[in-house]
DNA sequence: TTGATTTAATAAACAGTGTTTAGTATGTTT
DNA sequence: AAACATACTAAACACTGTTTATTAAATCAA
């Protein structure tokens, strides 16, 4: 009798929780679709609401504000990027792994410019982090992987024994981020409208040289 | 008689032109003040209008839209940055000059985060460029100076004779931009809240090493 | 100087934005 | 069946960039 009461109680609240998660996913799906098409600024709460045929106010029952919604998308984006790095585990040579990681990083950025924006350029999702910055640290597990690969490079004799892994990892990341963000934000027009991607690739090879010729 | 007529005619139209430029400068001054305090997104046309005690519509008589207003600010920002590079002309050794240029670039970015945003991260001013992209090329004269310094480094034997100057310049710029933009956009929190500036400096030294040990 | 005309400025509106509030149904519990 | 809780929304609030119609002033032609 008591057990039955609890089961019904738990059954309903569990269903409610499930429905709540389904609704959150529905909103997120619509947000993602619009965001990938038009970017953060041009994605409106009303647009998202229209797409799922709910009122705008409903969205605020599931997400605190637009920033938190974008943070949820950012988490998804990090998942996608981390997944794209999966093949790296099969590369034994650490320097080859490092090089391939750079290629994959650039590919991800160029193929998912809006997601890249969300992850590394927009302030909105970062402001939503506040206390719960675990999701950012979690998302940045790829940076740990980068550090590990650099460590492996040191052990394999590619870099000096005295190398500062943290600094080196930040240096590599900075270069990669700088390169793709200059490209994505249209700051490479100085090279002419057409040859920009070529310049990007040239610089990429250049940086590999810089790293390897130490 | 005829000459007098012309003089009056010209005198008025010249005054009008002068007054128009003064008004443009007045608007720009107000826009700059608000922008430096709150950034692009939070700077409103109404806010600018309030500050100069004119109606919002008046601003549209002097600037096509908000993007064009921000483009004018971007041009000013480039002027300021180029000026900050002035002292480099006094440095004879090309590698020391290159190193100092990096320091000045980072200093400018950290001391003028909103201006840096305008110059290298926001899309708004770039969209306003359209046909008249001369202002961007003009603003980027510092990039030519960077290329020149790298060329000098090659001649002085710091880099290989076969070095691709364009690619190397882009590589240096990408790294610098990546480093400061990761910092400015709060993506270096993985290093903890306090040590970020130290990490930035460490990486900077690291990159110099990478360049010099070739 | 007077009347016509161009110019400068604005009030008000338009179409949008993120977000909050008050109210209404529906589902759940007692 | 009555009391309560939940999900949802219409409408409003306070903004945003931008356009239009109108007014007042400066300039021009007679």
UniProtKB/TrEMBL annotation, chains A, B:
PROSITE patterns: HTH_TETR_2
Keyword Transcription annotated: yes
Keywords: DNA-binding, Transcription, Transcription regulation
Domain HTH tetR-type: 21-81
A Pfam family the protein falls into: TetR_N
Database matches in Gene3D superfamilies: Tetracycline Repressor, domain 2
Listed transmembrane segments: none
Molecular-function annotations in GO: DNA binding
Protein name: AcrR family transcriptional regulator
DNA-binding region(s) from the entry: 44-63
SUPFAM superfamilies, alphabetized: Homeodomain-like, Tetracyclin repressor-like, C-terminal domain
Organism: Dyadobacter jejuensis
Superkingdom assignment: Bacteria
Signal peptide: none
């Amino acid at each position: 009798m008591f057990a039955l009461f609890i089961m019904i109680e738990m059954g309903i609240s569990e269903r409610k929780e499930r429905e709540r998660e389904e609704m959150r996913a529905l909103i997120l799906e619509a947000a993602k679709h619009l965001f990938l098409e038009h970017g953060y600024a041009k994605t409106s709460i009303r647009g998202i609401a229209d797409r799922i045929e709910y009122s705008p106010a409903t969205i605020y029952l599931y997400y605190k504000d637009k920033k938190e919604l974008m943070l949820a998308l950012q988490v998804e984006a990090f998942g996608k990027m981390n997944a794209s790095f999966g093949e790296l585990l099969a590369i034994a040579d650490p320097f080859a792994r490092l090089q391939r990681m750079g290629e994959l990083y650039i590919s991800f950025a160029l193929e998912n410019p809006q997601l890249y924006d969300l992850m590394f350029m927009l302030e909105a999702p970062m402001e939503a982090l506040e206390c719960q910055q675990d999701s950012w640290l979690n998302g940045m597990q790829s940076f740990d992987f980068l550090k590990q690969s650099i460590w492996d490079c040191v052990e394999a004799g590619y870099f000096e024994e005295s190398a500062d892994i943290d600094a080196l990892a930040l240096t590599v990341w900075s270069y990669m981020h700088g390169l793709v963000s200059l490209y994505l934000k249209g700051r490479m027009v100085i090279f002419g409208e057409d040859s920009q991607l070529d310049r990007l690739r040239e610089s990429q090879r250049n940086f590999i040289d810089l790293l390897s010729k130490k």
